[in-house]
């Protein structure tokens, strides 16, 4: 029983720190709004049909989390709250028992039962179904990356109870259950999943309006009258307008055609606060930005590589770049996670390597040159030119040039596809930009997928048995405090090795019109639509 | 001379040729193969050198070319030494035009950007005008299967999005510089000039002087070179001189889409593109390279005007 | 004339196959795995990527992919986008919007371009001519992404005369501002072209003859000078249809228009072969037709141009 609380106490700890960071976005007196008013906000055409286990990008994710309610949901601070779950309990962190609240229904009238979850998860995990979120189930018994294999770890006890057997203990397992991959699906979905994906039936605070999804134009959500969870909407619905450029969305916000914008374009960094006085948001988000130096490059492995990585890191004036180029919409990094995640730290041992220190940088670079001279080699930093990265890449390159006296330049790939190709094929000639947006609010989500040997996003070939051992200890720790300590220890190893050179955390920057009130941005950079009042 | 437009005459009609002796055609188009070569082209030169506009634009173009060739003669500060503390800074001693967003000297960057930009503008224009012009002239003059074939190839090339071509070429040619960008732009822009030239040649090929020169026994090809092209080239020159500027800006647009010159190559397009995000707060960093571009285009527009007038026998006669 | 037009229609067949083959090859030649790139920094499991690749035939050699596409084409199936939509649906959505935008832009640039060019040509060297030159220079020297951004800011936000972006249905009224932006560069071309032609033709015999016959200046200018000056302008307009439709990437982005340019651009960056090829194939057909129309117009504008046969 004691263990069962793990996830929740983690949240309490987190909420304290996150509240401070988030400032006081919520007003104490809830504004009166029109219960029927429709809020307009920006989004993008979902990349796939709306099946929860096949939605990993933000365009579709926004819709999924609005029209579905999982076992738990996240508060603005990344805290978990029970939704369909009555309790999620485990004695050992490995075998979990999930009990459901009664009375939840899908908007077609079907009851939400254990089967709704177990069938959806089993479908999502099966290799042949090729669901993009399949790897989220990889710690459930029976999962396989290589063959069709049923999730034997899922066992339905009754309509309101099922058990989950994990391969390895995972103390914060409940933390990931609010992610879109873990949503329930009604029986009707299995009749024709393709048709379902076009017109999904969920159990969340909103549902898709009749003919609500106009492809490449917008998606209209209306309130689900039967929803009775913690995210009950105080407005009539949300229309998500699809934009292909943030500039266009910002122009619409300025022109009064958009109530809430959740991403201010760089062309408005200098002006958004005066354009929307008192109606703008700028707070850290769960997005970590860095660049990686591949281990297969000459000069960048072994002791020489370690010295050079540290030298490069200390030659970048993060504070000045976030201030001038980003106008304060980025927060200089002090670790490998994000300030909105419980357990984030700005005082890790060795974090001074992230401070701007030209003298030390020159000294370390010279030490590396003593091992093998760098000569006139050009230091380049690869980025995809279709992502708006040029300004900061140039600024970072200039900072490195100015400090170390080497020629540092940005290297633009025309498309993300192109850049990824060279990254995957180990064809980089220098560093590469790397970013990570958390799927769910946990330290592990920032570390496991990126730095464990063979993990999907560890593309530059970092391999440290020591790091992996500490990380595993953290994952199976018996308390949140212990887990956090281990994750921090693991990051201290990263600070020495610098497989990734942390730059900054992206802030969520948003603006909203004077027609709406009570706009609070969540830990995942998405506004909590259900709490917004209008009219 | 074009025929009069009253509709009584049809090219090739007998009485029309009979009236040839009374027209000034033979006088102006002295197709005397034994006499001293005095072609339209030499006439044009005689006419041009008497016009001040020719000398003004020539000097301007020469200046631009010298700046492009030897940029370091004109600057004292390095265009690549950039400090964020100067970001978007106002002009100060030694930095007459202020600083870019990255804190580089705007003046130095404009001077150093001249090379890539002017290369792209000139090279692309030359490639497009030569290739498109020749193809279009041949298609319009000879017609028939050649015309069909060439025109349809042009249709295919023009329908291919330049962006796709640019991405493919960038992937195939590892070096991204002014040359490769010019090549991409030219590859997809030549059909425009070819169409214009073809239309213009179609108009000119049935004129009296063509008929006349045929009657005088001049070969078809010589007629095309000596008489048809000089009379048909005016719109091509207009398009070419305007295109020069368009190509320089196209590089900025390619950069905007992420497939222009790499950030390491200095060009007006790159600077315009990078200044885009601060256009509301610091428009000068965008407008200054645009102004350099305007001056360049103006020089070539004036030059083109003079050349066009010089090649047009009627305009020459009017002066 | 009919035979001429019929021949041109027949020419479309090899053009169609030539263009589709070439474009499919170009999309194929762009390096990178389109499926792996779909997921950004969060790649799915390798097995998942393989399965999806197979689903889109991306695991097959180029020529097979192309033949599969052509095979589907004859059955009326143009394939699907990576988001699972049928390309036919996407085309049915994008082409009407773009056609409206391009027609408006064409009308704007032709109308204003010819008038300004005509007056500038008639008053060569005067103030009006110089002003037209300055405006043209400005439009040439400042890229569309800046012109669009600035006009959107002034007319959409500060003055509120136009909607800042175009709504999903893209009615004519909302497309006027984007059409002006789109037409701006071509406007400069047309002004210069018209001006040059008009100035040339002013001295021509037929104008002198017409004036000598006692025709009013107005009639001389509109019927004789202008008509004879329009051949290059009409040629240019014919060529421009293509740029206006598929080259409107930037303008469409600024005004959030869901049209051909942006769709093709995104399909190119994603490596979505069937989408790119289907769109461009339609563009080629439009292009051939537009040029046919231009060639037929020549005969009407300039009696000297006759098509043999």
What can be said about this structure in brief?
The complex is a heterotrimer of chains A (535), B (319) and C (309). Chain A is α+β, with helices and mostly antiparallel strands.
Topology:
The complex is a heterotrimer of chains A (535), B (319) and C (309).
Chain A: H1 6-22, E1 38-43, H2 58-67, E2 72-74, E3 80-82, E4 85-90, E5 95-100, H3 114-125, E6 154-158, E7 161-165, H4 193-198, E8 206-214, E9 218-223, E10 237-242, H5 246-254, E11 260-261, H6 272-275, E12 280-292, H7 302-314, H8 318-324, E13 330-332, H9 358-371, E14 379-384, H10 390-404, E15 408-413, H11 416-424, E16 431-437, H12 443-451, H13 465-475, H14 480-497, E17 500-512, E18 516-517, E19 533-534
Chain B: H1 14-18, H2 25-28, H3 40-48, H4 52-69, H5 106-142, H6 144-159, H7 162-172, H8 178-205, H9 208-215, H10 220-232, H11 234-256, H12 268-275, H13 284-311, H14 313-318
Chain C: H1 2-29, H2 34-38, H3 46-55, H4 62-74, H5 87-122, H6 127-141, H7 144-158, H8 176-202, H9 205-212, H10 217-246, H11 249-254, H12 260-270, H13 273-301
CATH topology (level 3) name of the domain at 94-261 and 280-301 in chain C: MetI-like fold
Structural class of chain B: mainly alpha
Residue ranges of chain B: pLDDT <50 for 5 or more in a row? Answer: 1-9, 12-16
Average pLDDT taken over every residue of chain B = 82
Round the Cα radius of gyration of chain B to an integer and report it: 24 Å
Fold and architecture overview:
The complex is a heterotrimer of chains A (535), B (319) and C (309). Chain A has 535 residues and is of the alpha+beta class. Chain A has helices at 6-22, 58-67, 114-125, 193-198, 246-254, 272-275, 302-314, 318-324, 358-371, 390-404, 416-424, 443-451, 465-475, 480-497, and strands at residues 38-43, 72-74, 80-82, 85-90, 95-100, 154-158, 161-165, 206-214, 218-223, 237-242, 260-261, 280-292, 330-332, 379-384, 408-413, 431-437, 500-512, 516-517, 533-534. In chain A, helix 10 links the parallel strand 14 and strand 15 (408-413). In chain A, helix 12 packs antiparallel against helix 13 and helix 13 runs antiparallel to helix 14. Mean pLDDT of chain A is 89; it is low at 1-31. Chain B is an all-alpha fold and 319 residues long. With 309 residues, chain C is mainly alpha-helical. Chain C has a domain at 94-261 and 280-301: MetI-like fold, CATH 1.10.3720.10. In chain C, helix 7 packs across helix 8 (176-202) and helix 12 runs antiparallel to helix 13. Chains B and C meet through helix 6, helix 7, helix 8, helix 11 and helix 12 of B and helix 1, helix 6, helix 7, helix 8 and helix 9 of C.
